[in-house]
């Protein structure tokens, strides 16, 4: 084999190897990343012999696939009681596993530990372990609890909320969800109070219940939710109202400033056209084939102006009903307008009572009135009778005149 052929053959082999490694890297990169984590802001704490421990534990899915995570306390010092619980409810629930979707929010559970009676001073190690359902991904967390005869810690209560400002209409309440944390080393009872404008009502309830409370007992390191409802008086004016919520235990105090914004009241309008006869009577009399004139009042009893006020009627067949005017372009709130209505029964209408309905309708709102129209019959025989009487009278007058001349 020549040197040129050897070089070509070697180049082909190198190219094949490079291509193979490139494809391998692509295949590996295509695999979804997985990862879970356990963490706490207090991996090491010191307590007195008669104290318990409550620590928040954050469980996070750091991968690209949904995970069901089994979690346990894999190592507990002898004699200690230790549990993982969910304190979002009134009664703590033991936690054994969590379902965390990919790119979802981390979840917080709580590590509770109680030392045995007569525990000795020193450090005690706890191991927490989280494992995926298929046991391919795991994480661990070491917690150290130190025991001393006496622990002096800065007592403090911390109040936080996601929403410090709420907006609402007059007549509505403003409810803030407050998270309260006892950051001291002792279990304490905290009393609640609030600063609000005069005549505003304030109530406190636990986040997990609807019972009104004035105070709450909290373990050292514990976090509890409290809902604070502010109810303004019914006649409250629009504007911003500063509010303050306080939790106190002796000389320990925590507070949080809030804001309630009462929105301006949106004025609502009513649209109520009304029809009335000018006399108040809802009946009329006429003769078949003859026009009868009525005066009608249209009144806007609403608070909003009316536009395009139209009129119509329902009547017996062959009757004619006309309005003058037959349309109003505008009728202000509280305004009254007079219009004429002419009713003409058909010439062959039989004597009797008939119903005629007059209606008005605008872009908003409508009304109607019903009229009873009594129709009388004008006959030809009546005119004939009158003519005969007139002829008889004229004839008698003529006879008396002739006799008088004789």
Major sheet attributes: 5 strands, antiparallel
H and E order: HEEEEEEEEEEEEEEEEEEEEEEEEEEEEH
Q: What proportion of the residues is helical, as a percent range?
A: 10-25%
Strand order of the largest sheet: 1-3-8-5-6
Q: β content, as a range?
A: over 45%
Mean pLDDT over all positions: 86
CATH third-level topology of the largest domain: Immunoglobulin-like
Report on this structure:
This protein has 406 residues and is mainly beta. 13% of the residues lie in helices and 50% in strands. It has two helices and 28 strands. A hairpin with a 5-residue loop joins strand 9 and strand 10. It is elongated and about 160 Å long.
Layout: helices, strands, pairs:
Blueprint: H1 3-30, E1 36-39, E2 44-48, E3 53-61, E4 67-75, E5 81-86, E6 93-94, E7 97-100, E8 107-114, E9 122-132, E10 138-148, E11 157-160, E12 165-169, E13 174-182, E14 188-195, E15 201-206, E16 215-218, E17 223-231, E18 239-249, E19 252-263, E20 273-277, E21 283-287, E22 292-300, E23 306-314, E24 320-324, E25 327-331, E26 336-344, E27 352-361, E28 366-376, H2 380-405
């Amino acid at each position: 084999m020549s040197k040129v052929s050897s070089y070509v053959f070697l180049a082909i082999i190198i190219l094949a190897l490079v291509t193979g490694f490139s494809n391998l890297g692509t295949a590996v990169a295509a695999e979804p990343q997985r990862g879970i984590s356990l963490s706490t802001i207090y991996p090491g704490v010191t307590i007195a012999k008669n104290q318990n421990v409550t620590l928040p534990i954050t469980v996070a899915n750091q991968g690209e696939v949904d995970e069901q995570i089994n979690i346990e306390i894999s190592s507990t010092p002898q004699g200690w009681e230790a549990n993982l619980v969910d304190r979002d409810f009134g009664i703590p629930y033991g936690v054994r596993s969590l379902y965390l979707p990919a790119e979802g929010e981390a979840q917080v559970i709580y590590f509770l530990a109680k030392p045995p009676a007569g525990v000795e001073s020193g450090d005690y190690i706890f191991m927490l372990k989280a494992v995926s359902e298929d046991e391919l991904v795991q994480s661990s967390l070491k917690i150290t609890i130190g025991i001393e005869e006496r622990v002096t810690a800065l007592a403090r209560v911390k109040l936080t909320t996601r929403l410090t400002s709420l907006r609402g209409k007059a007549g509505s309440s403003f409810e803030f969800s407050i998270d309260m944390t006892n950051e001291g080393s002792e279990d304490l009872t905290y009393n609640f109070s609030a600063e609000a404008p005069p005549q505003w009502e304030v109530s406190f309830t636990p986040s997990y219940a609807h019972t009104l409370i004035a105070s709450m007992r909290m373990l050292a390191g514990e976090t509890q939710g409290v809902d604070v409802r502010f109810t303004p008086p019914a006649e409250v004016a629009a504007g911003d109202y500063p509010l303050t919520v306080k939790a106190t235990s002796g000389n320990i105090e925590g507070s949080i400033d809030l804001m309630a914004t009462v929105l301006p009241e949106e004025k609502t309008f009513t649209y109520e056209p009304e029809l009335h006869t000018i006399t108040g009577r809802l009946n009329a009399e006429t003769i078949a084939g003859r026009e009868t004139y009525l005066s009608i009042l249209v009144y806007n009893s609403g608070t909003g102006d009316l536009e395009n006020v139209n009129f119509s009627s329902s009547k017996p067949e062959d009757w004619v009903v006309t309005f003058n005017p037959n349309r109003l372009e505008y009728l202000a709130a509280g305004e009254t307008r007079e219009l004429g209505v002419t009713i003409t029964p058909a010439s062959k209408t039989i004597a009797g009572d008939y119903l005629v309905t007059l209606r008005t309708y605008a872009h908003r709102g409508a009304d109607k009135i019903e009229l009873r129209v009594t129709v009388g019959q004008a006959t030809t025989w009546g005119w004939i009778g009158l003519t005969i009487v007139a002829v008889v009278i004229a004839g008698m007058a003529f006879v008396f005149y002739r006799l008088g001349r004789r």
